[in-house]
Amino acid sequence: MTTAKDLFIIALDLKHPVGQGDLSLALAGAELIDLIGAGAVAVDGDQIVPGGPPPGDRFLGEAAAGLTLQAPYERIEDWLWRRGRDLSAVYQAALEESGELKPRRSGRLSFGSESLEPVDTPERRRAVDRWEEKEPVLTALVAVLSIDDERSDDEGSGDETGLDDETGLDDEPVTMVVAAVHDAVMELEAVRQRRTIENAAFANLWRGP
Q: What's the whole-model pTM score?
């Protein structure tokens, strides 16, 4: 299992609704963090520099295959938007195909008319253990998504990015990636709000005075 797969499973289990776009950005960030941890990439400033071979995971291999191999290298922010496009749907399809997801009648993370829940597998238990142990990277990514509803009432501290001392993040490149995910999620939310306002104004125009 990878951080992205663990994050997808945890997002399914939590009560707070998770947008597909937000989750896709976070999944791309999780992949990049795993590539950094494996030495497959390094971060130079805000650019992603290719390194050694990626781990054997299919998704990480696909992510690494899309890296810019020569300078100027791709910026972290650009990576998130490019790699994250529809990424949550890709993970959903793969986990359904492997039998790790099943339909359920109600739930917060839904795709179209279908709601899903994870099957009780060793992989799911590993993801839950990692979450319950407050593993720093997974905790920080969940906090950025604002789906940490089960802890926010109790902890209620830290800055708006979720990068407080309790996450335990002490790796600068990883912290940069999580911060970039936060910025991208906030940008996506701003776009949603702007569209809502524009649609409301258009509807009022047609209604007339």
A: 0.81
